[in-house]
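ARCHIVE CARD
CATEGORY: sequence design from structure
SOURCE FIELD: tokenized fold
FIELD CONTENT:
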């Protein structure tokens, strides 16, 4: 049997956007065919099933977000300035109400049941890695004297992750820029002081 040829990253990004827009449970195979351009047989061949496609989309989402995160922290600016820019970017994503700029982790976690331990475990691991990357940046800020050395960088990372997920969730029903910007500023100031 010949494998279908397609741009895997492009297909996964289209699938992740569809999953964020409609949710995993409400996304049908015809929806996936229309969004990705792949016939169901090709989806089954490449990903085994819709669940396999979700797991692959989560992996692509993580890879894309890791690249994005690294780009925000690749300048010579102070680490806290980079965090502020990162938070501003998240607020702009929330305000856009564009499903492609949403959070696949939040969507998948809301929909996953206790029975889908695999999705929960993958997302939990991805969040833990992101949180650790944030903690490492806070530790770097402490080393540079931008943050007080008596702060707990691991706790600050947990607090920021909680705040970002709170912003993303709150924005679903309150996408007003001025409100989200104030909340993000309060979150940032809570970390800095």
């Amino acid at each position: 049997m010949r494998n279908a040829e397609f741009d895997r990253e492009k297909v996964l990004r289209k699938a992740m956007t569809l999953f964020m827009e409609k949710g995993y449970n409400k996304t049908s195979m015809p929806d996936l065919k229309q969004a990705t351009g792949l016939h169901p047989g090709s989806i089954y061949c490449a990903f085994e099933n819709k669940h396999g496609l979700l797991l692959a989309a989560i992996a692509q989402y993580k890879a894309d977000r890791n690249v994005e995160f690294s780009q925000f922290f690749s300048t010579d600016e102070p680490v806290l300035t980079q965090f502020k820019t990162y938070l501003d970017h998240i607020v702009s994503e929330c305000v856009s109400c564009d499903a492609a700029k949403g959070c696949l982790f939040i969507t998948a976690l809301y929909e996953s049941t206790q029975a889908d331990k695999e999705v929960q475990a993958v997302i939990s691991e991805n969040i833990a890695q992101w949180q650790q990357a944030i903690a490492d940046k806070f530790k770097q800020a402490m080393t540079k004297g931008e943050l007080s050395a008596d702060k707990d960088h691991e706790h600050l990372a947990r607090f920021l992750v909680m705040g970002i997920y709170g912003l993303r969730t709150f924005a679903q029903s309150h996408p007003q820029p001025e409100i989200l910007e104030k909340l993000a500023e309060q979150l940032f100031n809570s970390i800095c002081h």
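CARD ANNOTATION: The longest helix spans residues 117-143. The chain has a mean pLDDT of 88.
SHELF: design records, drawer C
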